[in-house]
Design brief:
It is globular and about 50 Å long. The protein is built from one helix and ten strands. By secondary structure, it is an alpha+beta fold. The chain starts with a helix and ends with a strand. Strands 2-1-3-5-4 form a five-stranded antiparallel β-sheet, with no helix packed on it. A five-stranded antiparallel β-sheet has the order 7-6-8-10-9, with no helix packed on it.
Length: about 170
């Protein structure tokens, strides 16, 4: 007497084991790759970042609670392949891991009302104490859900972010 189910399981079992081994190998490589990423590269969409060094050649940062005035950027998008950010309002962040994989991010400004920041045109924004000579602008008003610069009262300049819509009214500190 022959049982067709036995033969089928004998043929399917090695295939399932091969798939499981491949999945374990990929997961293992991914875990090693994640371990070599900086804390900034491990952040996800919606997380915030404090830029601690805004040198044009060696930008450094750290994850931070989005409610902090030091949370200069919010992660808008992340990519596994080189991608241009949708507009100039976003800052590109690129990091290559030891394994050779590259993380690409688009960061949206996340300035806090009343806080000051440093804007060096060749570098990312950085939080600065308002009494410091490093402070180049102060956020007078932050209006979420709007991008109409006419809403800025007494501001010398404005910055807008299209998505999520945010208007920052700024002046000298």
């Amino acid at each position: 007497m022959k049982f067709p189910g036995v033969r089928l399981s004998v043929r399917v079992a090695p295939g399932l084991l091969a798939v499981a081994a491949l999945a374990a190998a990929v997961t293992g490589c991914s875990a090693v790759d994640d371990a070599t990423k900086s804390d900034v590269a491990k952040t996800e969409v919606g997380d915030c970042i404090n830029i601690t060094n805004n040198s044009p050649t060696a930008t450094e940062g750290e994850p931070i609670d989005c409610s902090s005035p030091k949370a200069v950027y919010k992660v808008f998008q992340t990519f596994g392949t080189k991608t241009e950010c949708p507009s100039n309002e976003y800052t590109s962040y690129t990091e290559k891991s030891v394994s050779g994989r590259t993380t690409f991010m688009c960061l949206a400004p996340n300035f806090a009302q009343g806080a000051c920041y440093n804007d060096v045109s060749t570098s990312p924004y950085k939080w600065a104490d308002c009494a410091s000579p490093d402070a180049t602008f102060k956020v007078l008003q932050r209006i979420d859900g709007e991008t109409d610069e006419l809403l800025c009262d007494n501001a010398q300049q404005f910055l807008t972010v299209p998505d999520p819509k945010t208007l920052f009214c700024v002046a000298k500190p």
